[in-house]
Design a protein that fits this description.
The chain is an all-alpha fold and 298 residues long. The chain is built from 13 helices and no strands.
Length: 298
């Protein structure tokens, strides 16, 4: 119950606060960005303090190499069936996409934070043993700010329910990702709930890695981080290839990032028509990610 409250309470309290002033919203965004780097740094530090470190690193990459293909395969199959049964009609011609290299480098900066924390943690400097405590307080503040951002995104219940395609893709993405997580858990001999929690980040690696570390420790937390990081990098590469024929699949693969990080590339290639569905899809996935991780790890 404590872990559930740590995740849900600050998220709900933050969601109750509706900011209108653009300056305050920018401050929240900058603070949130800084907190993500700080928490990921301490996640790497905690990893360095694990006993039998080499075995744990092998375990992390073993989990990633099994879970990522399982989750992606289930998602791709389900979204392909959705597009086949209910094709997304459109007349937009794709434009030149923004630099995928630049977007990939932005993702890798967060990976570098984990590696920097891990490198410093190898020094075994005594104050770093308090990394888990610092990380927990920073996590509470981060979830509070995430709740504020979701509320201030301007999405109302009416707008969400009216965009049927965004809701439909989000529903298929949710069910297929959880099915992939359950399959991965069976292959990895993990509890089904752990596998489903691992799949509940929906590409939001900066959040899933942190929450999973708090719930399951740095091994599963690091695996969740790299699992969702790989999903986003693969999505960035696939969007230009899939948009013309598999529009639903393209949006579904973007996961929680379709309302922020991958939105520019979706808009550039898919046109303004895809933007409302992308925002609704991303909003739903972003809202459900911390809630589902909390439920599956409770």
């Amino acid at each position: 119950m404590y872990g559930l409250l740590v995740i849900l309470l600050p998220l709900i309290v933050g969601y109750l606060i509706h900011l209108h002033h653009s300056v305050l919203l920018r401050m929240v965004a900058r603070t949130l960005s800084a907190l993500v780097y700080v928490i990921l740094f301490f996640m790497g530090t905690s990893l360095a303090f694990l006993e039998d470190l080499s075995s744990n690193l092998v375990m992390i990459f073993h989990i990633v190499l099994i879970s990522t293909p399982c989750i992606l395969a289930c998602s791709l199959c389900a979204l392909w069936l959705l597009e086949r049964r209910l094709p997304w009609r459109h007349a937009h011609k794709s434009q030149t996409p923004p630099s995928r290299l630049h977007m990939a480098l932005e993702s890798l900066k967060l990976c570098a934070s984990v590696l920097a924390g891990f490198a410093l943690g190898l020094s075994q400097w005594p104050p770093l043993r308090h990394a888990a405590t610092v990380s927990e307080y920073a996590l509470i503040l981060m979830l509070f700010l995430v709740g504020m951002q979701l509320r201030s995104s301007g999405m109302t219940l009416r707008q969400i329910t009216l965009n049927r395609r965004g809701m439909l893709v989000a529903s298929v993405s949710l069910v297929s990702a959880l099915a992939g997580g359950a399959c991965a858990a069976l292959l990895l001999d993990l509890p089904i709930k752990t596998g489903m929690a691992l799949a509940s980040g929906f590409g939001w690696y900066s959040l899933s890695g942190i929450l999973m570390t708090e719930a399951f420790g740095p091994v599963i937390g690091s695996a969740a981080f790299f699992n969702d990081l790989l999903r986003e990098l693969i999505t960035i590469l696939l969007i230009p290839l899939l948009m013309s024929r598999q529009r639903s699949m393209t949006l579904g693969l973007s996961g929680a990032t379709s309302m922020d990080f991958t939105l520019p590339i979706l808009q550039r290639i898919g046109g303004m028509e895809i933007v409302p569905a992308a925002i609704v899809h991303g909003f739903i996935m972003s809202l459900l990610a911390p809630i589902l991780i909390a439920l599956f790890s409770a």
